[in-house]
Amino acid sequence: MDVIKEFKVIGKRLPSHDAVEKATGQTKYADDFALPGMIYGKILRAKYPHARIKRIDTSKAEKLDGVYCVLTHKDVPNNAIISRFGQTRAVGGFEGVYRVLAEGKVRYYGEPVALVAAETEEIAEKAIDLIEVEYEELEGVFDPREAMDPKAPKIEDGKSNVVARFKIRKGDVAKGFAEADVIVENEYMSQFIDHAYLEPEAGVAWVEDDGSITIRVSTQVIEHYREIAHVLGIPESRVRVITPKIGGGFGGKEDITVEYYLALLAWKTGRPVKIVQTREESLSFRSKRHPYKFKYKTGVKKDGTIVAVEAELISDAGAYMTLSPWVLLYSTVNAIGPYNVPNVKVDSYTVLTNHPPSGAYRTFGAGQACVAYEQQMDEVAKKLGMDPVEFRKKNYLKKGDTMANGWKIPNTVALHETTDLVLKYLGKKPKPSGPKKLVGMGIASGMCSYGRMIFLHDTSRSKVRLELDGSVTIECGVQDVGAGQEASLCQIVSEVLGVPLKKIRIISGDTAATPIAGTTTATRQLYMSGNATYLAAMKVRDNILTKASEIFGVDKSELIIEDEKIKTKDGKSISLRDIAVACAADGVELFCEAQFNAPFGEVPDPETGQGRVFPDFTYGTTGAIVEIDTETGEVEVKKIASAFDVGTAINPMRVEGQIEGGAAMGIGWALTEDVKFEKGIAKAQSFAEYIIATAVDVPEIKSIIVENHDGLGPFGARGVGEVVLAPVPPAVINAVADALGKRIKELPITGERILLALREKS
Amino acid sequence: MKKYPLEFKVNGKKYSVEVKPNVTLLRLLRSLGFTEVKAGCEKGDCGTCAVLLDGEPVNSCLTLALQAQGKEITTVRGLGTMEKLHPIQEAFVKYGAIQCGFCTPGMIISAKALLDKNPNPTREEIREAISGNLCRCTGYQKIVDAIEAAAKMMREAK
């Protein structure tokens, strides 16, 4: 569909349209908004990870001056709800089951039990303290492997804790292992990680004049308005969700955060209500990255050819199922990584425990798999006595190969290129800077899909309007988490219509005012809404070119659009303003809407896992050099580089921003970040205990963009937002293992664990 | 709780208010409409609430409002406007140092405090100066680039 061959705007390092407002502090995030008469909501949270609720007495709280209402599960019209996470199509087994407020029992420490709305936050907090809850503590289960035992305490009474399992069966692993010269078996794990976006969960809800509800909330999924309507027992048409600019999401604002509570409190009181969660609430009680336990068995020939991989993946779903089956399917499909393996057997399980519900988190399960398979690749190379890069190169997937799920790859896999570029930047492993130092170098390759699983039948819609003065308005329901979701659409329209960015305005993220564009998750907005917006802009373009061809008496193909003009080859031109006026006078549409549909498919076969699951993947490589202080156990990342084939970089500056941000996040995952649950209670409750990388903890980050222009997004783009994280943790972990001459298989690799490993070694 | 009178300036404009002694400067500023001062943790760990207090960078969540008595506060909105950006703001825009933007106001304030004292910092000094400001989006690379470029612009303008 691309008729535009030479880019004037695509590929340029143009500042985002909203950077100036953000630099000057104008942007009104969820908490920066207030309404007259607004009151404040607070949440009473469970004091035990697993307990029956014997009695809740709200009478004292209700009597407190300034309290407007106190709500428990009895006040929620539909308390047990099923979330479809904004998907277009119902698919059995993939819906998340929630309870808005705990009912009968609490399943995790911090689970919401009651809500209060009061005149001030202080009064609301006092009222929370006055609510009496009598609990009968139950035995909890905090390890997913233990929770799989039929005798383990049940999170959902009378039901198995295993809430989803997947299989992949490709070829014959027994035959594969029989052919193998070397077999390597290992176990790995990945820990609980918090999204640590800097903006805590927040929003304001109010009742409109017509009695409908509006919620202005920091969310990646405005389409939760459907679930909110269901909870309130009112038609979907009577709930509106608006998202302002989001102060970071990373998947943590994909699940419902405070929407239900806001809606219920506004509904019951008739007042505008604000809820802002504290950092402690965010860190301790909100969804986390699923921890995994992995078992890997890999069979290889002497020459380094992988002949078989068998893997077992167990993830901790936490106390409610939510997105866990989906995340698990990502891990399952990604379990062997970007390698060509003829015989594959994967068994994966996600298991309820008494932890807070695990949820979506950048890479959505593909990253955890990468942590495991890329460590295993190094271990196999070591056993073979082969260079880990050479071993990977021997097995990288390429165009035309078949993935473990049977999908034949139709486009470029540029892993040889990305790996070579990373290695070139890293150079030779340097000498240690002192006598008590160890230096290590590691690489890892990874992949992650962009676009949602194809059995969800994903769609996006967008509108583009050429105004009568030649400026442009885009209306598209994207949620902008800060990665440039809006800005990329502006840049696409600027290219198609020849309008400078400063004359383009985008209206986004409002279920009542913008076309539904789907979730800002799954690295799907550039792909889905980028294509929808491109198609809408192309309709406008075609309409104005048709009009111009009438005016100039030349064929449309003879016309070009640039610099706010339509030009003929012989030097005649008409401004966009004049052509817009001419079109309007003749009733030619200047306001065009388009829908983009992803490829549609079905759920893969449950017994074999065979079937296309994703529209496409993005691939890339990270390399890291670390230095370890053997006296303190401290790891310094000295050098890091990541290269990804992004298809086409709509804006290289923003692509680099994603790669760099992914690198810093991945360093934290490998080395410092851990929510550390002990018996269901988070030990990290502030950024003093939950350590994310600061500017002095990361080195200069080298981001390398490869462009093979054969992605499914506009102008051949591939998605980048998630994949940029996947290979970073294993690259750092492999570098540490190289330095130590020993692998620490528990994450994060803290100084303490390093000192312990050094002691064991000596 | 008894309220106490407080007089101070924000971005050059004088304010006379009455506040309880337990109110933080962050909460007071936000209640006065300075929503560019962000509440990321309210424990002094993230730096999103940084402002200049008589030219010195402070976490306003750890500063009591009454400590601002007679002082001059500068927030990011006091540095430049959308029409006329401060060079640091301009560099943040130009170099792609802003993603979600939630850390940006505090980050720019820390950069301003650094460049006021050290107009020609090394990249290491820049990193040190913003090490109290967390950013989850950018990996800090383009923020350091932007501050380095702003320093150059500001030196050349003198």
Short overview:
The complex is a heterodimer of chains A (762) and B (158). Helix content of chain A is 26%, strand content 26%.
Give the key terms:
heterodimer; A: alpha+beta; Aldehyde Oxidoreductase, domain 3; Aldehyde Oxidoreductase, domain 4; 3 domains; five-stranded mixed β-sheet; 32 strands; 26% strand; globular; B: 158 residues; alpha+beta; DNA polymerase, domain 1; 5 strands
The radius of gyration computed from the alpha-carbon positions of chain A, rounded to a whole number of angstroms, is: 27 Å
Structural class of chain B: alpha+beta
Number of domains of chain B: 2
Number of strands of chain A: 32
The overall average pLDDT of chain B, rounded, is: 98
Going by CATH, the architecture of the largest domain in chain A would be: 2-Layer Sandwich
Q: Strand portion of chain A, in percent?
A: 25-35%
Strand composition percent of chain B: 15-25%
CATH architecture of the largest domain in chain B: Roll
Rg on CA atoms of chain B, Å? 16 Å
Helicity range of the residues of chain B? 25-40%
Quickly give the structural class of chain A.
Answer: alpha+beta
**What is the spatial order of strands in the main beta sheet of chain A?**
3-7-1-14-11-12-13
- Tell me the major beta sheet of chain B: 5 strands, mixed
Number of helices of chain B: 5
- CATH fold description of the largest domain in chain A: Aldehyde Oxidoreductase, domain 4
The general outline of chain B is globular
Average pLDDT of chain A, rounded to a whole number, is 96
Give the uncertain stretches of chain A in residue-range form: none
Largest sheet of chain A: 7 strands, mixed
CATH superfamily of the largest domain in chain A: Aldehyde oxidase/xanthine dehydrogenase, molybdopterin binding domain
